[in-house]
Every structure is written in C-alpha cells, then in structure tokens.
Amino acid sequence: MYSKFSAIDASRKVFNEMPEKNIFAWTSMVTGYGQSHQTDEAMVLVREMLRLGVKPSEVTYTCLLSSFHYPDDSDYCRQIHCRLIYEGLESDIYLAATLATVYSECNTNLEDFYRICSNITIWDQVSWNAVIAGFSNLGICGEAVLCFRDMRQAGIVVDFFTFTSVLKATGTLSDLEVGRQVHCLVIKSGYASDTYVQNGLISMYARCGSISNAKGVFLSMDKQDVISWNSLISGFAQHGYGREAVEMFEEMKRSVVKPDLITFLAVLTACSHVGLLNKDLSILI
After folding, report:
1. What is the pLDDT of residue 277?
2. Which single residue of 40, 167, 168, 229 could bond 204 by disulfide (Cβ 3.0 to 4.6 Å)?
3. Is residue 15 a contact partner of residue 24, using CB atoms and an 8 Å limit?
4. PPR repeats span which residues (predicted)?
C-alpha cells in the first residue's frame, strides 16, 4: 500500500520491522523502489535477497526490469539478464517480452535486441506488443509496421498499446497513407476514444504534415491532456504554422491544462518561424 503511493521510506520501515519476510514482501519492496525511480536501491535489495538465499520470482524480476528506462540503466539490465540466463528463466514469456522492451529503451545495440526477440517462443499479444514497441523505440520503424501487419495476420488481437507503438512508428516514417489505415483500424477496434491512442493519432498526423487531421482528432477528444496540446502545438510549429501554434498556446493557457517545458520549447520554435522571438516573449507568461 505504501509503495503504491510512493511513501517509500514508510514502506521500507514497515519492511525492516517484519520478523519474517516472504517473497511477496520482497517483491513489493523492489516494486516500490522501481516505481519511485530508485533503481539503485531496487538492485541492492535484489542482491540482498540472493545473499540471504531468497530466490526472486519471475514477478520480482519483471517488476525490477520494468523500472529500467534509460541508458544509465543498461548495465543493470545486462546484470539481470545474465541472472535470468543462469536461472533458466530467459525464455519465460513475460520476462522475454519485458527484456525486449527494456533493451530497446536502455540500449541502442540492435544485436542485443534481436537476440532477445529470438528467445521469444510464444507469440501472443504481450510478445508482439513488446517487439513492435521495441522496433519503434530503436527507430527501426519499418520493421515495427511490418510486425504490426504480421501480428494481425496471425490473428492476435491488437490493443491500445499496439496502436500507440505503431502510430509512433508511422509518424516517424511520415507515412500518411499507412497512418490513415491504422486510424481506420483504431475506429473499427473501438479505441477511437482512448486518450493514449488519440494522442498517438495527433502526433502521427502532425509528423506527417496533416495538421487538419491532427486538429480534427484533438477537437474530437472529450478531454485533452498536456500531451494532446503539446502534440498539436509542436505540429503547428514544425510545419511553419507559427501564428496558429501561438494561438493554440493562448487557448491552452485559458484551459485547465498547465503548459510544461515541452510546450514552451514548441512555442519558442513557432515564434522563431514567424519572427516573434525577439519581438514579444510576453506570450510565454
């Protein structure tokens, strides 16, 4: 309970006072550190488990791996991967999928990613999603789109996670035709009102230069979040619609959504395109 609310210190105090700690207590604590972005502490705890002869479960390793998102975590990822090989868990369906995702986020070495993918023995929704997201994260977006097609041909049901990954890949490719096809599938699959998917659509259309479609998706949303606003403002800025970007920013300031750093960077880009950068920065206030 404490870990879920990021009260990690209180959680650790309760943990330390437990006379006997079972695997569920250890895993909960590891998860808590992971969710609090304290990967160093999470690794220390897993090493302590091993030192005391407490064998981490597949869930423990999955939770730990899921906390790795940055290049600085790549060494930890490799260490846990080696441990999984030692324990014969490398081919576990969920661990293999998690490894694929983590390697694509923490490590740009394609050989490592391909090796992980080759160890996947069961291709279900989780596996396909991990591989599609991995290719997208690594910038191998053509492969991400091909995997998406293969997934559908295999009869695997796609979900919002699948769509967000393939939309990201399609936007990077600036392939408007494929993007529109994916949008049709989104509607047919019943995900047209999912906020994550809608944000993916806005970003995809904006990257493809179809600003009218991006704005259409934005206006169709019941409730926009900061990602929705940023995606549209960035789209305006990147394609030379500087004044429209500034107008959208002014509208955002009147909404309940607060601008963030990405918003301000997009607006500065827009201002530079229309000659407002040195003339009037008061719009950022």
Report:
1. 56
2. 167
3. no
4. 22-56, 124-158, 225-259
User: Rounded to whole angstroms, how far apart are CA atoms 278 and 258?
Assistant: 24
User: What gap in Å lies between CA 256 and CA 168, rounded to an integer?
Assistant: 26
Give the pair of three-digit tokens for residue 103: 């390697």
Q: What is the pLDDT of residues 104-135, one digit of tens each?
A: 998 767 888 998 898 898 999 999 999 999 99
Contact 236, 244 (CB under 8 A): yes
Answer for the pair 179, 204: CB distance below 8 angstroms, yes or no: yes
Higher confidence at residue 38 or residue 108?
38
- What's the Cα-to-Cα distance from 219 to each of 171, 198, 265, rounded to whole Å? 20, 10, 23
- Of 245, 246, 251, 250, which is closest to residue 232 (Cα–Cα)? 245
Q: Which amino acid is at 95?
A: L
In this prediction the pTM is 0.85
Mind giving me the DSSP string for 178-232? HHHHHHHHHHHHT-TT-HHHHHHHHHHHHHTT-HHHHHHHHHH-SS--HHHHHHH
Q: Does residue 224 or residue 36 have the better pLDDT?
A: 224
